[in-house]
Amino acid sequence: MSNGLLQDRVVVVTGGSSGNGRAIALAVAAQGARAVVVADVLAEPREGGRATHEVIGGDSVFVSCDVSRPESVEEAIAAADPLGGVDVLVNNAGIVGPASPVTGMAVDDFDRVLAVNLRGTFLGCRAAGRGMAARGSGSIVNVASIAGVQGSRTSAAYSASKAGILLMTQTLAFELGSSGVRVNSVLPGIIQTHMTTVDRPLASDAYDATVAKVPLGRLGTPDDIANAVVYLASDLAGYVTGTSLVVDGGLIATIS
Ligand SMILES: NC(=O)c1ccc[n+]([C@@H]2O[C@H](COP(=O)([O-])OP(=O)(O)OC[C@H]3O[C@@H](n4cnc5c(N)ncnc54)[C@H](O)[C@@H]3O)[C@@H](O)[C@H]2O)c1
Question: Looking at residue 201, what is its pLDDT?
């Protein structure tokens, strides 16, 4: 493709091996990205199939990366240096953690969810933001969740981590705006990935009841999230920063 929305960009996608991250990596490649750095703890998709960077081919690479570890994130961002540096960073890696009420939650479980989701996003923004600011351009898209604006019975750590991402996104948009760097977040609703089909599967009756609540009448797909990320990362969103794009089929608008 010669006129993709992300033509010749170098894109880093954390958690790019599976689910939403894999769809994002494939979508940015389809929009002309010159290379995609897939940064993940696992190379193989959790749902099965060939590794993302192999499917994309070209200069795309896999970097073994635990986003909760500063040096690991620095290495993932540095992997883009030989390609000219990071144009687009998608902080997508995330875990949901065990379902638990706050009063019964293990401290280690709380800390791990915050470390991967919130600290991981901070570390990615910090590492890539420096180079973007120095070059005077770049786009960061943070994958949050509607759980960051709506509480739930058993996901306090997850919700807290996603709420934190939303405010960090706004703060960083302010910090980097004058350097020509845009920072936005996407809030997925319920998307059919390993996280929702295996880590926290809905029983069939709960599944039907959940789908019935979605105005658009279906759960989301990873491609729904990838399309939103492509938009925010691209020049189409050139006057958009600090915003939160909800991609949930209308679910949050109808929760009372
Ligand atoms: N699926 C949903 O319904 C949903 C809803 C809202 C938000 N999200 C968000 O979308 C993002 C992707 O989730 P998904 O649904 O695709 O889940 P997934 O489990 O399919 O994919 C998550 C990916 O992140 C990777 N990962 C996990 N911990 C990591 C770490 N420490 N360092 C690097 N990579 C790590 C996993 O290996 C995996 O490849 C997450 O941030 C999640 O919170 C998902």
Answer: 87
Q: Which fold has domain 10-245?
A: Rossmann fold (3.40.50)
Determine the distance separating the centroid of ligand 1 and the alpha carbon of 193, expressed in angstroms: 8
72: Cβ contacts below 8 Å, ≥ 6 apart: 64, 65, 66
Write the pLDDT tens digit of every residue in 115-163: 999 999 999 999 999 999 999 999 999 999 999 999 988 999 999 999 9
For ligand 1, whether the C-beta of 143 sits within 6 Å is: yes
Pair 183, 169: CB distance under 8 Å: yes
Neighbouring-strand partners of residue 187? 246
Ligand 1 atom 31, closest CA: 66
158 is catalytic: yes
